[in-house]
Amino acid sequence: MSKGYSKFLDQNDLPPLPHFLETDNLSTELENNWKKQLEYTTRPSIVIAIAKSFGAPFLIAGIFKMLQDIIAFIQPQLLKQLILFVNDYSKDTTIPLTKGFMIVFAMFTCSVLQTAALHQYFCRVFDFGIKIRSSLTSMIYQKSIVLSQESKQKKSTGDIVNLMSVDTQRLQDLVQNLQIIWSGPFQVVICLVSLHNLIGSAMWIGVAILVITVPLNTVIFRYLRILQKQQMKNKDERTSIISEILNNIKSLKLYGWEEPYKAKLNYVRNEKELKNLKKMGTFQACGNFMFNCSPFLVSCSTFAVFVIFNTKPLTTEIVFTSLSLFNLLGFPLAVVPFVIGNIIESQVAIKRLTDFLVSDELERDTAHELPPAQKIGDEAIKVENADFLWSRDPYKVALTNINYTAKKGSLNCIIGKVGAGKSSLLQAILGDLHKTSGLIFRHGNVAYVPQVPWIMNGTIKENILFGCRFDPVFYEQTIKACALTQDLKMFPGGDQTQVGEKGISLSGGQKARLSLARAVYARADLYLIDDALSAVDEHVGKHIINNVLGPEGLLNSRCIVLATNNLNVLRFSSQITLMIDGKVTEENSYEKIMSKADKSSPLFNLLNEFGRKDSTPTRSNNNSQVNLTKTLDVDNSSISSENYDDDDVAGEVSSDLDEEIRRVATGPEPIRRASIESFREAIERKEDEENTKKTGFEETHEKGKVKNSIYLMYAKACGYKNVLILLVCIVIAMFLSVVANFWLKYWSEINTKLGYNPHAVLYLSIYFCLCLSSSIFTLFQTLVQWIFCSIEGSKYLHSIMVDSVLRAPMSFFETTPIGRILNRFSNDIYKIDENLARVFTMFFSNSIKVSFTILVIIFSTWQFVFLVVPLGLLYRFYQMYYLATSRELRRLDSVSRSPIFAHFQETLNGVATIRAYGQLDRFSFLNKYKMDKNMAAYHPSVSANRWLAVRLEFLGSIIILGASGLLISTLRTGRVTPGLVGLSVSYALQVTQSLNWIVRMTVDIESNIVSVERVVEYSQLESEAPEVIENHRPPEHWPFRGEIEFKNYSTRYRPELELVLVNHH
């Protein structure tokens, strides 16, 4: 906390994650108990596995919760005793004040003990939630990388990501309040007993009203959930339109379609999304109105029944003790139904998780792995009488009666038309298909080049090394052999250039060559290459054949199985296998096939067909040639490709490689892969390097406090008049509530003085009107907050951002990832729509409530003002001390959480490649490492909340002690009455929660106002030239003919780049 107060925190400032929260330990524990569930029960339960793994601390938390509940109900009894003491003292001043001070000290002690018990409970349940999320996330990851093809078809990548992001989070959130299920009824029982002892049977009418309001609130919130679902659909529709616009922005600008698409977007935004949001605001206002009405309806009805059916007076101790008990009773009755609802919703998450965790996995023993073949010509791969399925339900055959052999030192080509089963055979050899019969033997380790290259987020060098130790000599040979030398020269950072989703966009040919380089560098025994030559230009393809695949290539001593229809490489193959409809139809060498010229041979006919296609000159439609760096997008850099061609590349590297290939191709051992421990060190070193060497094109974010101009901008967007009306409503509602309590004090003191209940109807009517008026202004407050502030503000901010983005130049879209722009229109707009105005309102409400509380206590005893000043300063210090750290911890939590899902999605996209290279352990370790890194930020954030809550609640205890103690010490003045004590101490007992909420809402405001800052940033983008330039309008009947003429035209993609056209005519 002290470090966060003195500087901006970064990841290195965080304390190490406690050993008992490390993902590896947690996931191992849960996996072991889950395996027991699978072994010993027919209906495995993930809930039981979780309970056995982490349940003990959760049960201990329940003990602290019970202790806190009991202490909470002692406070009203102590309040009653304090009021009775003051009443007795007013009649007999000889009673020693020591008794009063003992009651005050008891109230202070109970308050401190309640704080201690509550936060011991919270510490344990939050740790329990962390354990659930960490362990389940790891289990989901582990399961996803071994799913069978059949299971993958049933679960999309998005579904699995939702399991990790949504369902685990839902379970984590649930356990934080799960013990309310027993704690709620326990509190209700204690409260009912206390109320019955206090006011007898009159309490049942109040209980009845509370019970009636519960289903009414449930109905309101049920409609809110329906509207929320509709709101999600509206958001999805709007996001879909935004995504469509951004993905096709160049076409929109060329056709001048910005305005029609903006109108389409605004219709969904204004007529659907915001109108639905108004309905949600109206129902929210009704719910708040019911919630505010319940307490005074309960008190009015209870007091009415009491005075009607009882002859004894409704005295001060009865009034304020009853109000305290009804306030305590309201919480469990309001919360329990929602916890039950959350449990029901969590059942869906539990079922989804269970169904996923019991999904079919890949068969571990599909292929028999044997030692590498020793001699050229030895058998390296063998498939005997094997049948393979894509899925068993529905039954879908992939390959039938496969007999196939490939030898060490041979190039084996598999050919066939689209859908014939070429890729399927490679997947079968890898072990990725379900084998129903037959045998597969693999001699040695495997390198795999998929048809669609998988490039992981990282540098080019990291993609090539792929977990292997760095050998500089062979690394350079690999670069040259795979025709990457010229590309690396053109890339801004050479082989340190970031590629993948977070880096530059590679062409299809560059991806294919990078994927091939990864395989070559692995120096595996067996190479399974799926149509890698189709993505590259013919000249580059010949270069790769000569230097990698052919008899003089780097892999000439390995066993290569290549799925291809490229005629050039077939000439060098040792064996050509023809696949038709999932069957091996014919096998032979190229020489024998062409020498026989058997026209009845399907293999000969297919080769002839390839030859005719190959001899037909065609213009290449493939933009993935080696020189296609013109499509590169380096966040802020574009690379022109007009400076070299494929012949240059091939010629440049071929001569240099000939001698090197002959020297290394026949015998180097496979490069040993790095250990997990050394990999951990490499990750930490790499992160340190990245922190010190930023590319300059990262997404910008401010540190520290948000500027005041952003707050003013949001107030302007909401409308200054609307904000003023909102504040006036809050003040009036709070003022009327305080007046109502003063009226109750006045009435109860008259009853106490006279010994009966005079003019009960009048007093009750005035009390009822005051409370009802307060609730009505609360209703107005919520309506103004939603309809006039929140909706108008978000409508304005969304509108100016849309205008700015659509008018931004193409350079902005070329240098900004679409996901980054989408995040402004989705996540940031959501926070402005539904969160920001609400947290502002809660902040103002609690601040005004605390202000009135302090005023009431000062009114009761003016000496309290001398305690308010130091307490206020201490409170402000705690607030600033906490906010400085909490702000950065939240930022670190957010920053470290995104890479978890990015890594997970990346793994799912490349799982076949990762599995083929034997890299599952490394990627699993990476997942756990990223989880621990996130938890290292999240756990201190939760702990900081506890740190703050304990101190603020202790300040609340000091306020109770100070207010009560000062009242007792001034009894001799005769100004202090029982009603004044009841009123003052009742407010003091409630102030702790409000103090906590003020700081929490301050944090939430800072978290959400950042969204306004981000939206404002995108509303001030550099703009294109105006759509219409009045003094450069074309003639009325333009155009006269279709023609474009250039005169000494020069241009560049962006101001900082070289010219791409120079004096063009």
TrEMBL record:
Keywords: ATP-binding, Membrane, Nucleotide-binding, Phosphoprotein, Repeat, Translocase, Transmembrane, Transmembrane helix, Transport, Vacuole
Compartments where found: Vacuole membrane
Keyword Plastid in record: no
Listed Polar residues bias regions: 617-629
An individual GO BP term: homeostatic process
Any one Gene Ontology molecular-function term assigned to this protein's record: ABC-type transporter activity
Pfam family, one: ABC_membrane
The ABC transporter domain, residue ranges: 381-606
Glycosyltransferase as UniProt keyword: no
Main localization of the protein described in the UniProt heading: membrane
SUPFAM superfamilies: ABC transporter transmembrane region (SSF90123), P-loop containing nucleoside triphosphate hydrolases (SSF52540)
Residue ranges of domain ABC transmembrane type-1 in the record: 59-345, 724-1007
Annotated family: Belongs to the ABC transporter superfamily. ABCC family. Conjugate transporter (TC 3.A.1.208) subfamily.
Name this protein carries in UniProt: Unnamed protein product
